[in-house]
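User: My notes are a mess, but here's the protein and S-adenosylmethionine's SMILES. Can you give me a structure?
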Amino acid sequence: MTPAARFAAAIEVLDDVFAGAPAERTLTTWARKNRFAGSKDRAAIRNHVYDVLRARRSLCAAGGDTTARAAILGLLRRDGIPVDTVFGAGGYGPAALSLDEVGSATLPHSDAVSADLPDWLWPLWQESLGQAAMATAQLMRHRASVYLRVNLSRGTRDEAVAALARDGIVSKPVDQVNTAIEVIENERKVAGSSAYASGLVEVQDTASQIAMAQLRSVAGRRVLDYCAGGGGKALALADQTDATVYAHDIDQARMADIGPRAQRAGVQITTLGPSDLMRHAPYDLVLCDAPCSGSGTWRRTPDAKWRLTPHDLDRFSVMQAEVLENAKPLVAQGGTLAYATCSVLNSENDAVVDAFLAKHGDFQRQETLKLVPRAEHDGFFLTTLLKIQP
Ligand SMILES: C[S@@+](CC[C@H](N)C(=O)[O-])C[C@H]1O[C@@H](n2cnc3c(N)ncnc32)[C@H](O)[C@@H]1O
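Assistant: No problem, the inputs look usable. Here's the predicted complex:
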């Protein structure tokens, strides 16, 4: 495909996404219907779509309209790509700009537009991030690197970097935590690499790795990952502690990959259904990596930023409180209840923890880790609560 045709395809996909369709599924459907597109084409189209979604409001403003076509026009203008090499350039690219489009002026900017956030969310974002609100919002317009976690039971970080290099993947260690590697080139080769197949590396953001490193000292002998999903956190804890690690999720189907992932990593994780939880209790550490808006990871899932509603945030707060209530009886005396989200919003973080502590005098707040999104990591929140005598 020509570069212009890739932009035309991105406009086609974005038309559906702007109408409410999920980005990833729309890209997959487009690829199925357009078999002539090769892997490089698909990757380029995906990048255009995600670049727009990260900065949808400001790009539409720069393109003078709220359509997908205007957003791509805004993207070209922002990135200094000559507009006539794409619009009206032939080669199955988008049609030439109309006179109105050529003369379109940048729409007026509010702070929420500059922050590329929905209007209703901007005050909550400011309240949560204070002085860092605008800079953090604007950072979320940029692509985030892929980060890997080295399974230290399988090898060292230097060995992992060397193994990845043998498969043509350029990577480098990350300073903040001794398990993290940033992929610099050829991230799409990771899943097929021998370092991945042999369990030497797993895909995991640096923020999660920093948080799990912090939990090592309170793991004790028995750990329960109460909201395990695909098991990313449980795998990290199993690799880095001597504890027996259990995993649970209300949606048991989500845990389907934990067995194969644990086997690859050479660690043991026992998955538990709801009726098994009490049988193995109490646990020295119960981690609640709660369902949340994911606002700290919106560089990777930018369409979620535009889909989120105030009602969703209320629903998350209810679920988060429920998770802590249900997990509470499983914690051993002197043990730790850890609450985590990948959100930066207070309503999902401190507010949930404060409400829990106001109800339960037998828990005492210990450490809190608040990671604001940066080039090297996503946003993350972790608080540890010690179970004490009431
Ligand atoms: C943020 S995800 C977990 C991600 C996972 N820990 C990881 O590292 O890959 C939240 C998970 O919580 C689960 N969940 C939601 N409500 C729950 C509840 N009441 N009890 C247990 N799990 C719940 C969801 O099914 C979802 O898999």
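The pocket of S-adenosylmethionine is lined by residues 226-230, 232-233, 249-251, 254, 289, 291, 319, 322-323, 326 (CB under 6 Å).
User: Great, I'll file this with my notes.
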